[in-house]
Specification:
- The protein is of the alpha+beta class and 469 residues long.
- 58% of the residues lie in helices and 18% in strands.
- It is built from 9 helices and 10 strands.
- The strands form 4 sheets. It has a 4-stranded antiparallel β-sheet, with helices on one face.
- A hairpin with a 5-residue loop joins strand 8 and strand 9.
């Protein structure tokens, strides 16, 4: 049976410090702590939380700093001086840039809602896994308790055989009984002891199954806290429609499927946003430095004779020799400071049908999630129907076996008295004794089966599933 025992556990409270006896709740908690799938689901949930924070941050502006340090050889135009450079030139640039989406078809909003739904789905997935584990551990726990009762019944049968054999041995020694009766009782005692051994082996196997579900070593010693288990055969079981009406709104597998459908609804909206224009605001500030930029430090005039006039006078021309020095780094950073602010509008016209294909894929995924939700609802109803039918059958079987046990006890008591009086033979006595043993075993089996089935049905109704100590 799939999932659904969120707390088929509160059978008894936690054990105290230093106490080694485990209640059902302790066993389930240990199974949860050790189970690798549970740990993986917890990590998946943490990953979903991280992804949600990342998606929410997409609505915020970005801010990035940049810096560069470059050397250039060969001819190029220097970006800071707009001059041709043919020698090695050092340049630097520094700045801050930012940008924010003003409108993108509500894509960020849809992605945030989709991620929120994904996170909720992962939470319910973890809860559903824990329910599966709790159900398995509870079944194994009750199996151990049932086998322990069978061991007690088998020990009682051994005690009866020992008592009767002791009595017959005395009668045989006194010559008042047939030696064949003694042999038959010895054989019956051997069979009873064999049954007791088988029951003890069953207990080891049942305990091993419980340990494996708890993921503890097989050689670890466990002691289980036995609760007071009441099986009320007069219990009135709720109708299937009543149970389903509650369970549909409470079971984690239904919630998980609902949030998965919600997630794909939002993913569809995000895909459709690709048809809308987008508007982005961006800006930057920056500055830079160029090793090619120089300034004049001093000027020396130079007078040269360039000819003579007709009268023989010299004609002079004057030129200037200038000395240059590189403009300091700090000065250039201040001089080259620049700012930018801009709006960018992007209107989708044709993108090779990429948006349409994304929308179609999202629609398909949404339809799959919708079918998954319906499958979960159908499966839940079928499990509830099976659980109620099983509970009814277990109740009737338990009532019938309780009646059979009462009759078998009376028949055995009467047969034992008649056997001791010599009114019936050993075969008839053993038949009555074996009938009692089978009746005890069936009562124990059907009792725990009934308890387990009713607790599952109660779980679907949100009722407490604990067993008192």
């Amino acid at each position: 049976m799939k999932s659904h025992v969120l707390l088929l556990l509160l059978f008894v409270p936690f054990f105290g410090v230093g106490q080694t006896t485990l209640s059902l709740n302790d066993c389930i908690q240990k199974a949860w702590e050790n189970n690798l799938q549970v740990k993986q689901s917890e990590l998946n949930m943490e990953a979903s939380e991280s992804q949600l924070r990342s998606t929410q941050a997409n609505v915020l502006p970005n801010l990035n700093a940049f810096a560069s340090h470059n050397y250039n050889w060969g001819q190029r135009i220097d970006p800071f001086t707009n001059q041709f450079a043919t020698t090695r030139v050092q340049s630097n640039s520094f700045g801050l840039a930012t940008g924010i989406d003003l409108f993108n078809g509500f894509q960020n909003y849809q992605n945030i809602k989709a991620q929120e739904a994904s996170l909720e789905a992962s939470k319910y997935d973890l809860e559903a896994q824990k329910n599966d584990i709790a159900l398995s551990v509870a079944g194994a726990f009750l199996q151990v308790l049932m086998v322990e009762e069978l061991i007690n019944a088998a020990e009682q049968q051994v005690g009866i055989s020992v008592r009767q054999l002791d009595r017959v041995e005395k009668l045989v020694a006194a010559g008042a009984s047939n030696i064949g009766v003694q042999y038959e009782l010895e054989a019956q005692l051997a069979r009873d002891r064999s049954t007791l051994t088988l029951r003890r082996n069953d207990l080891q196997l049942a305990m091993l199954q419980l340990k494996q579900l708890m993921l503890v070593p097989a050689d670890e010693t466990l002691s289980l806290k036995r609760p007071n288990v009441d099986a009320d055969s007069a219990m009135v079981l709720e109708r299937t429609s009543t149970v389903y009406g509650y369970a549909e709104g409470a079971m984690p597998e239904i919630k998980r499927a609902e949030y998965s459908l919600m997630q794909w609804d939002r993913q569809l909206g995000a895909a459709k946003s690709g048809w809308y224009p987008s508007l982005t605001l961006s800006g930057s500030i920056g500055s830079g430095y160029s090793g090619l930029r120089t300034e004049v430090t001093d000027v020396t005039p130079v007078t040269e004779t360039i000819g003579f006039t007709e009268s023989g006078e010299e004609v002079f021309t004057q030129s200037f020799n200038a000395n240059f020095s590189r403009v300091p780094f700090g000065t250039q950073i201040g001089d080259n400071f620049n700012q930018f602010l801009g709006l960018s509008l992007n209107v989708p016209l044709f993108n090779r049908w990429q948006v349409q294909n994304n929308v179609n894929q999202a629609k398909i995924n949404r339809s799959i999630a919708e079918l998954q939700l319906e499958q979960e609802k159908q499966g839940l109803r079928q499990r509830i129907e099976s659980a109620r039918t099983d509970a009814i059958a277990a109740r009737e079987a338990y009532k019938a076996n309780v009646g059979a046990l009462t009759a078998s006890e009376k028949a055995f008591e009467f047969a034992e008295k008649r056997f001791e009086a010599g009114a019936i033979n050993i075969v008839e006595f053993n038949n009555a004794k074996n009938n009692l043993m089978m009746a005890q075993a069936e009562v124990s089996r059907t009792r725990y089966d009934f308890i387990f089935r009713t607790r599952i049905l109660n779980f679907y109704m949100g009722k407490p599933l604990g067993l008192s100590e």
